[in-house]
Write a structure and sequence with these properties.
Elements (H helix, E strand, L loop, with lengths): L1 H15 L11 H11 L2 E7 L9 E7 L15 E4 L4 H8 L2 E7 L4 H5 L11 E10 L2 H14 L13 E13 L6 E3 L1 H6 L3
Antiparallel strand pairs: 1-2, 1-4, 3-6, 4-5, 5-6, 6-7
Subcellular location: Secreted
Protein name: CREG1 protein
Family: Belongs to the CREG family.
Length: 194
């Protein structure tokens, strides 16, 4: 409980702190980085491999992190902590393609401005790509990113064979203002200063 309160307080301070202000709508790549870094979870959509749902879209919530909390500390890489026991991970074993949606609706920002989660001003980002296990050299980065935001993960049952993964981004859509989606390339996304 105290950890959740601390993370929520950190998120509020981040959104109000100098350098933590929301980017303007004309800076779509920065907006994408900002939204991902300020979100602790997202909706991951897979193509189901489950009996009765095979081939149909299936969305599930996952905790994620692109780095420890704080302005300008995110890598832009969405890291996840997964187990093969999870239904969506079973889908990913058949087809690793997925989409990931993150929204400022989970932060204090939209409530403060009284934006409905569907209002474009309550920015959300849609990433398309695939989920890949991280290699040994990247596992430490993923662990620090995830456990700094989700400390309870460290105590999750070891017999579930948890592993670190990342969302390998191939396409990015930003909805942060009226007038439709903005397309950001992965190159623009990773090259911008958050």
């Amino acid at each position: 409980m105290a950890g959740s309160l601390l993370l929520c307080t950190a998120a509020v301070l981040l959104l109000l702190a100098p350098g933590g202000a929301i980017p303007p709508p004309e800076e779509a790549a920065r907006m994408a980085r900002f939204v991902l870094h300020n979100c602790d979870w997202g909706a991951l959509a897979t193509l189901s491999a489950q009996e009765g749902l095979r081939g149909r879209p299936f969305a599930n919530i996952f905790s994620l992190s692109d780095g420890p909390p704080g302005p300008r500390s995110g890598s832009g890489v969405p890291y996840l902590y997964l187990t093969d026991m999870e239904i969506s991970v079973q889908d990913l074993e058949i087809n690793s393609n997925a989409s990931l949606t993150v929204s400022l609706a989970q932060t204090p920002y939209c409530k403060k401005h009284r934006y409905d989660p569907q209002n474009p001003l309550c920015a959300h980002i849609i990433f398309c790509g695939s989920i890949v296990k991280v290699n040994d050299s990247e596992a430490g980065i993923a662990k620090k990113a995830l456990f700094s935001r989700h400390p309870e993960m460290e105590s999750w049952p070891k017999d579930h064979n948890w592993f670190f993964a990342k969302f390998n981004i191939t396409n990015i859509w930003v909805l942060d203002y009226f007038g439709g989606l903005k397309i950001v390339t992965p190159e623009e996304y990773y090259n911008v200063k958050p």
